[in-house]
Design goal:
This protein is mainly α. It is built from 13 helices and no strands.
Length: 324
């Protein structure tokens, strides 16, 4: 199956994720606006109500997401991996994906334990690059190292998904052992797999420019015609600053600038939702294909595991616990 065919057949997970995330964002917005209106009418301190409503909404969404959203991402990765390794997919891709996730991770706790372990290993190794930059170039090297580290965090997300795919592929062994193998596969074949970096960042920047830029323009156009609303928000900010005896920068005293900030925030949120649901999985198919092909054609050795053991405490700890 081609990358395009796999993407289209697993798109149902993206649609479910989009709907779920949209409902979550709307829920947070409703709670925030509701808190603002309620507290503003009672005490004339609407910003406090807005903050409380938003925080409560985020906590509520985080709890619900913990038990719901993971099935969308994991199920999609499981089905992508099956398509790449077996060359076909079942009729009910969504149902089979959820079934595979539940059979591989019998509890939610086991799933998050595996993903935390994967992230910890790659993040520890990523920090080494930052430290190397600091050692070589002092402050300048630290800046370069930090910039590289930020980029690494983006790549780490895809590597975690690849390791998760490897866990689904190697259903004949435990998740921890598959996690260790996945990390070893990448670091043994790093040069071959790093060709994915261009795809990851290139498509990510295009996505941000097109999707984020479009929604920013739309929101700013709408908000520019809501002068009264943003003037009221400005007044609320000034009142809050006066109560706390804090000077508000002139930038935030301009309703147009507040409209600009609101447009940027909303555009970024919507871009994150759309990018995560539709663009990222499209990128992931190609990254996952390269990873599984290399993994299936490469045999990891004791030396490969020893090399990572010396660099990652988390890897060493898991390996010791697994006696592997």
């Amino acid at each position: 199956m081609s990358n395009k065919e796999i993407y289209k057949k697993t798109l149902t997970f993206s649609v479910h994720r989009l709907l779920f995330n949209t409902i979550c964002v709307l829920g947070i917005a409703i709670l925030g606006v509701g808190g603002f209106i309620l507290v503003d009418n009672l005490t004339n301190k609407g910003l406090i109500g807005l903050a409380v409503g938003v925080v409560f909404g985020i906590i509520l969404v985080a709890v619900i997401s913990h038990f719901v959203s993971y099935t969308y991402q994991a199920g999609q990765i499981a089905m992508m991996t099956r398509a790449l390794t077996e060359g076909d997919l079942p009729e009910d891709v969504y149902g089979e994906g959820k079934k595979v996730v539940k059979s591989r991770f019998t509890t939610v706790a086991l799933y998050y334990a595996a993903t935390r372990a994967i992230k910890a290993i790659f993040q520890e190794l990523g920090h080494l690059i930052t430290k190397a930059g600091e050692a070589i170039g002092g402050d300048a090297g630290s800046t370069v190292g930090s910039a590289i580290s930020i980029g690494i965090q983006v790549v780490v997300g895809f590597l975690c998904d690849c390791c998760l795919g490897w866990i689904f592929y190697r259903s004949d062994q435990g998740a921890v052992k598959s996690t260790l193998q996945g990390a070893a596969i990448f670091f043994k074949n790093g040069k071959a797999l790093l060709r994915n970096v261009g795809r990851i960042f290139g498509m990510g920047l295009v996505s941000l420019a097109v999707i984020g830029g479009t929604f920013f323009g739309v929101f700013f156009l709408i908000f520019s015609n809501m002068t009264d609303a943003f003037t009221s928000l400005r007044d609320e900010i000034l009142e809050a600053g006066a109560r706390m005896n804090t000077s508000i920068p002139s930038f935030f005293q301009n309703p147009t600038n507040l409209a600009l900030i609101a447009a940027i925030i909303l555009a970024f949120i919507i871009w994150s939702i759309i990018h995560g649901a539709f663009v990222r999985p499209f990128i992931l198919v190609g990254v996952l294909r390269n990873f599984t092909q290399v993994g299936m054609s490469t045999e990891t050795t004791e030396n490969d595991y020893e090399s990572i053991t010396k660099k990652s405490k988390k890897f060493a700890k898991l390996r010791e616990a697994e006696k592997f």
